[in-house]
Amino acid sequence: MQTVILCGGTGTRAYPHTLELPKPLMQVGDRPILLHLMQIYARQGFDRFVLSAGYRADLVAKFAADLETGWQVEVIDTGERTGTAGRIIGCAPELGQTFLATYGDGLGSINVKALLEFHSSHAGAVTVTAVPLPSPYGTLEWDEAGRVRRFVEKPRLTDHWINAGFFVIDDRAFDHWEGDDLEREVLPALAAAGELFVYQHHGFWRSMDTYKDALELSALCLKGDGPWTNLSELESSSQEPPGSSDRISPGALSSMERKSMP
To answer: Which residues are CB-neighbours of 213 under 8 A, at least 6 positions away?
Structure first.
Protein backbone atom coordinates (compact mmCIF):
# COMPACT_ATOMS: atom_id res chain seq x y z
CA MET A 1 0.00 0.00 0.00
CA GLN A 2 1.32 3.41 -0.98
CA THR A 3 1.54 6.43 1.31
CA VAL A 4 1.42 9.82 -0.39
CA ILE A 5 2.93 12.69 1.61
CA LEU A 6 2.22 16.30 0.67
CA CYS A 7 5.63 17.99 0.51
CA GLY A 8 5.04 20.91 -1.84
CA GLY A 9 4.09 23.90 0.27
CA THR A 10 6.21 27.01 0.74
CA GLY A 11 5.85 27.00 4.53
CA THR A 12 5.25 30.72 4.87
CA ARG A 13 4.55 30.45 8.62
CA ALA A 14 8.08 29.16 9.17
CA TYR A 15 9.74 31.98 7.19
CA PRO A 16 12.66 32.72 6.90
CA HIS A 17 13.71 29.14 7.66
CA THR A 18 11.77 27.97 4.59
CA LEU A 19 13.20 30.63 2.29
CA GLU A 20 15.32 28.02 0.49
CA LEU A 21 14.01 24.86 2.12
CA PRO A 22 10.66 23.03 1.88
CA LYS A 23 9.05 22.85 5.30
CA PRO A 24 9.05 19.00 5.37
CA LEU A 25 12.85 19.15 5.22
CA MET A 26 13.17 21.36 8.32
CA GLN A 27 15.07 19.63 11.10
CA VAL A 28 13.37 18.05 14.11
CA GLY A 29 16.15 16.82 16.32
CA ASP A 30 18.81 15.28 14.10
CA ARG A 31 16.73 14.68 10.95
CA PRO A 32 14.08 16.30 8.74
CA ILE A 33 10.51 16.07 9.98
CA LEU A 34 9.73 14.24 6.73
CA LEU A 35 12.01 11.38 7.77
CA HIS A 36 10.36 11.18 11.21
CA LEU A 37 7.00 11.04 9.46
CA MET A 38 8.03 8.29 7.04
CA GLN A 39 9.41 6.29 9.96
CA ILE A 40 5.97 6.37 11.64
CA TYR A 41 4.65 4.40 8.68
CA ALA A 42 7.71 2.26 7.99
CA ARG A 43 7.93 1.02 11.57
CA GLN A 44 4.46 -0.42 11.09
CA GLY A 45 5.26 -2.09 7.77
CA PHE A 46 4.21 0.64 5.33
CA ASP A 47 7.40 1.56 3.47
CA ARG A 48 6.22 2.51 -0.02
CA PHE A 49 6.05 6.29 -0.40
CA VAL A 50 5.07 8.85 -2.99
CA LEU A 51 6.34 12.33 -2.11
CA SER A 52 4.16 14.97 -3.76
CA ALA A 53 6.62 17.81 -4.20
CA GLY A 54 6.37 21.38 -5.47
CA TYR A 55 8.38 24.17 -3.85
CA ARG A 56 12.07 23.20 -4.15
CA ALA A 57 11.14 19.80 -5.52
CA ASP A 58 14.82 19.33 -6.34
CA LEU A 59 15.67 19.23 -2.64
CA VAL A 60 12.91 16.70 -1.95
CA ALA A 61 14.27 14.54 -4.78
CA LYS A 62 17.79 14.80 -3.34
CA PHE A 63 16.47 13.83 0.10
CA ALA A 64 14.81 10.74 -1.39
CA ALA A 65 17.91 9.80 -3.41
CA ASP A 66 20.12 10.02 -0.32
CA LEU A 67 17.93 7.72 1.80
CA GLU A 68 19.60 4.45 2.78
CA THR A 69 16.57 2.61 4.06
CA GLY A 70 15.47 0.07 1.47
CA TRP A 71 12.10 1.82 1.26
CA GLN A 72 10.43 2.37 -2.09
CA VAL A 73 10.26 6.16 -2.56
CA GLU A 74 9.04 8.06 -5.61
CA VAL A 75 9.04 11.86 -5.90
CA ILE A 76 6.46 13.53 -8.17
CA ASP A 77 6.70 17.25 -8.90
CA THR A 78 3.07 18.43 -8.77
CA GLY A 79 3.86 22.14 -9.26
CA GLU A 80 4.64 25.02 -6.93
CA ARG A 81 1.16 26.58 -6.92
CA THR A 82 -0.92 23.40 -6.73
CA GLY A 83 -3.37 23.00 -3.84
CA THR A 84 -3.46 20.10 -1.41
CA ALA A 85 -6.18 18.29 -3.36
CA GLY A 86 -4.39 18.84 -6.65
CA ARG A 87 -1.22 17.34 -5.23
CA ILE A 88 -3.02 14.08 -4.49
CA ILE A 89 -4.65 14.06 -7.94
CA GLY A 90 -1.22 14.58 -9.47
CA CYS A 91 -0.02 11.35 -7.85
CA ALA A 92 -3.23 9.34 -8.36
CA PRO A 93 -1.92 7.08 -11.15
CA GLU A 94 0.73 5.73 -8.74
CA LEU A 95 -1.50 5.17 -5.71
CA GLY A 96 -3.69 2.13 -6.34
CA GLN A 97 -7.23 1.35 -5.25
CA THR A 98 -6.70 2.25 -1.58
CA PHE A 99 -3.86 4.36 -0.28
CA LEU A 100 -2.67 6.32 2.76
CA ALA A 101 -2.10 10.07 2.69
CA THR A 102 -0.87 12.74 5.07
CA TYR A 103 0.58 16.22 5.33
CA GLY A 104 4.34 16.66 5.42
CA ASP A 105 4.45 18.58 8.68
CA GLY A 106 2.57 16.65 11.37
CA LEU A 107 3.75 13.91 13.73
CA GLY A 108 1.48 11.55 15.64
CA SER A 109 1.56 8.18 17.36
CA ILE A 110 -0.96 6.89 14.82
CA ASN A 111 -1.73 3.19 14.78
CA VAL A 112 -1.90 2.81 11.01
CA LYS A 113 -3.25 -0.73 11.10
CA ALA A 114 -6.05 0.28 13.47
CA LEU A 115 -6.79 3.22 11.17
CA LEU A 116 -7.05 0.85 8.21
CA GLU A 117 -9.26 -1.55 10.16
CA PHE A 118 -11.63 1.28 10.98
CA HIS A 119 -11.66 2.36 7.34
CA SER A 120 -12.61 -1.18 6.31
CA SER A 121 -15.47 -1.21 8.83
CA HIS A 122 -17.49 1.57 7.20
CA ALA A 123 -18.89 2.30 3.76
CA GLY A 124 -17.13 5.62 3.15
CA ALA A 125 -14.46 6.31 0.56
CA VAL A 126 -12.28 8.38 2.91
CA THR A 127 -11.28 8.23 6.58
CA VAL A 128 -9.71 11.28 8.20
CA THR A 129 -7.92 11.17 11.55
CA ALA A 130 -9.21 13.69 14.08
CA VAL A 131 -7.54 14.88 17.29
CA PRO A 132 -8.71 17.13 20.13
CA LEU A 133 -7.91 20.76 19.43
CA PRO A 134 -4.59 21.71 21.10
CA SER A 135 -4.99 25.06 22.79
CA PRO A 136 -2.13 27.50 22.09
CA TYR A 137 -2.77 29.09 25.48
CA GLY A 138 -2.99 28.04 29.09
CA THR A 139 -6.47 28.04 30.61
CA LEU A 140 -7.97 29.00 33.98
CA GLU A 141 -10.39 26.98 36.08
CA TRP A 142 -12.39 28.57 38.92
CA ASP A 143 -15.23 27.79 41.31
CA GLU A 144 -18.72 29.32 41.54
CA ALA A 145 -17.42 32.24 43.60
CA GLY A 146 -14.86 33.08 40.93
CA ARG A 147 -11.88 31.83 42.96
CA VAL A 148 -9.20 30.44 40.65
CA ARG A 149 -8.52 26.79 41.44
CA ARG A 150 -5.79 26.00 38.94
CA PHE A 151 -4.01 26.84 35.73
CA VAL A 152 -3.83 24.25 32.94
CA GLU A 153 -0.95 24.73 30.52
CA LYS A 154 -2.06 24.42 26.86
CA PRO A 155 -4.74 21.74 27.37
CA ARG A 156 -6.35 19.67 24.63
CA LEU A 157 -9.87 20.99 24.12
CA THR A 158 -11.75 17.72 23.95
CA ASP A 159 -15.07 19.26 22.95
CA HIS A 160 -13.50 20.39 19.68
CA TRP A 161 -11.79 18.14 17.13
CA ILE A 162 -9.64 19.01 14.14
CA ASN A 163 -8.33 17.38 11.01
CA ALA A 164 -4.91 15.90 11.79
CA GLY A 165 -4.34 14.38 8.36
CA PHE A 166 -3.40 10.66 8.33
CA PHE A 167 -6.01 9.69 5.76
CA VAL A 168 -7.11 6.45 4.16
CA ILE A 169 -8.52 7.04 0.69
CA ASP A 170 -10.23 4.73 -1.79
CA ASP A 171 -9.84 5.77 -5.40
CA ARG A 172 -13.63 6.04 -5.82
CA ALA A 173 -13.32 9.21 -3.73
CA PHE A 174 -12.19 10.87 -6.95
CA ASP A 175 -15.82 10.71 -8.11
CA HIS A 176 -16.49 13.49 -5.56
CA TRP A 177 -13.15 15.29 -5.93
CA GLU A 178 -14.15 18.87 -6.67
CA GLY A 179 -11.60 21.68 -6.51
CA ASP A 180 -7.91 22.12 -5.76
CA ASP A 181 -8.13 22.61 -1.97
CA LEU A 182 -8.45 19.47 0.12
CA GLU A 183 -9.65 21.17 3.31
CA ARG A 184 -12.02 23.78 1.92
CA GLU A 185 -13.44 22.00 -1.13
CA VAL A 186 -12.83 18.26 -1.41
CA LEU A 187 -13.43 17.13 2.18
CA PRO A 188 -16.68 19.13 2.54
CA ALA A 189 -17.86 17.65 -0.78
CA LEU A 190 -17.05 14.13 0.44
CA ALA A 191 -18.85 14.83 3.72
CA ALA A 192 -21.91 16.07 1.84
CA ALA A 193 -21.89 12.86 -0.21
CA GLY A 194 -21.75 10.72 2.96
CA GLU A 195 -18.31 9.38 2.01
CA LEU A 196 -16.19 10.88 4.81
CA PHE A 197 -15.71 9.15 8.18
CA VAL A 198 -13.68 10.16 11.25
CA TYR A 199 -11.11 8.10 13.12
CA GLN A 200 -10.53 9.57 16.59
CA HIS A 201 -6.95 9.56 17.83
CA HIS A 202 -6.30 10.11 21.53
CA GLY A 203 -2.52 9.75 21.57
CA PHE A 204 0.24 12.18 20.72
CA TRP A 205 -0.15 14.54 17.74
CA ARG A 206 1.53 17.82 16.90
CA SER A 207 1.82 19.88 13.73
CA MET A 208 4.89 21.93 12.85
CA ASP A 209 3.50 25.24 11.64
CA THR A 210 6.37 27.51 12.73
CA TYR A 211 10.04 27.39 13.57
CA LYS A 212 9.05 27.56 17.24
CA ASP A 213 7.07 24.34 16.74
CA ALA A 214 10.18 22.74 15.22
CA LEU A 215 12.21 23.68 18.28
CA GLU A 216 9.55 22.29 20.63
CA LEU A 217 9.33 19.03 18.69
CA SER A 218 13.13 18.81 18.71
CA ALA A 219 13.13 19.19 22.49
CA LEU A 220 10.84 16.15 22.72
CA CYS A 221 13.44 13.91 21.13
CA LEU A 222 16.65 15.23 22.68
CA LYS A 223 17.06 12.08 24.80
CA GLY A 224 15.82 9.50 22.32
CA ASP A 225 12.86 8.90 20.08
CA GLY A 226 9.97 11.35 20.27
CA PRO A 227 6.52 10.51 21.67
CA TRP A 228 5.23 9.87 18.15
CA THR A 229 7.18 6.58 18.29
CA ASN A 230 5.94 5.54 21.73
CA LEU A 231 4.17 2.17 21.69
CA SER A 232 1.96 3.10 24.65
CA GLU A 233 0.84 6.15 22.67
CA LEU A 234 0.10 3.94 19.68
CA GLU A 235 -2.03 1.71 21.86
CA SER A 236 -3.90 4.70 23.30
CA SER A 237 -5.51 5.47 19.96
CA SER A 238 -9.10 4.32 20.17
CA GLN A 239 -12.56 4.77 18.76
CA GLU A 240 -13.94 4.88 22.31
CA PRO A 241 -13.10 8.19 24.03
CA PRO A 242 -12.20 7.87 27.72
CA GLY A 243 -14.89 10.28 28.92
CA SER A 244 -18.09 11.95 27.83
CA SER A 245 -16.36 15.29 27.39
CA ASP A 246 -14.10 13.66 24.77
CA ARG A 247 -16.95 12.61 22.50
CA ILE A 248 -16.85 14.21 19.11
CA SER A 249 -19.67 16.68 18.75
CA PRO A 250 -21.99 16.65 15.73
CA GLY A 251 -20.53 18.81 13.02
CA ALA A 252 -17.28 19.34 14.89
CA LEU A 253 -15.39 18.63 11.70
CA SER A 254 -17.90 20.27 9.40
CA SER A 255 -15.53 23.07 8.51
CA MET A 256 -12.50 20.73 8.42
CA GLU A 257 -10.40 23.42 10.08
CA ARG A 258 -6.68 22.98 9.59
CA LYS A 259 -4.05 25.15 8.07
CA SER A 260 -3.63 24.56 4.37
CA MET A 261 -0.19 23.31 3.47
CA PRO A 262 -0.16 22.53 -0.30
So the answer is: 206, 207
